Amino acid sequence: MAAAYRIEVAPTVRAMLAEGRLRATDLFDRVPTRVIEPEELTDADPELASLRNLNSPEDYEAALRLLPTGAENRP
């Protein structure tokens, strides 16, 4: 499951972590949510590569190799 969050959600996430509430569905109950359709992302990410699933350090390293030169050094 991929998600996009506004920075304003960070305090809620911090509070939930402090409470030991780790389920994403708990967050959905606390903040306004909506489904983002793939078509909404294709202007910025035509191949939807930003939704790539990274589960290991190896996956992350492989994703870094796909970035344009220098992009891996961006904040």
Can you give a write-up of this model?
- It contains three helices and no strands.
- The protein folds into two domains: 1-35, no CATH class; 42-75, no CATH class.
- The longest helix has 10 residues, at 10-19.
- The model has no long low-confidence stretch (mean pLDDT 87).
- The chain has helices at 10-19, 24-30, 57-65.
- With 75 residues, the chain is an all-alpha fold.
- The two termini are 24 Å apart.
Keyphrases for this structure?
single chain; 75 residues; 3 helices; extended
Describe, in short, the structure shown.
This protein is mostly helical and 75 residues long. Helix content is 35%, strand content 0%.
* Number of structural units classed as domains: 2
The major pleated sheet works out as: none
Individual helix count: 3
State the helical fraction.
Answer: 25-40%
Roughly what fraction of the amino acids lie in strands? under 5%
Q: Which stretches are poorly predicted, pLDDT < 50 over at least 5 residues?
A: none
Based on DSSP secondary structure assignment, what is the total number of beta strands?
0
- What is the H/E string? HHH
What sort of overall outline do the alpha carbons produce when their principal axes are compared? extended
The Cα radius of gyration reads 15 Å
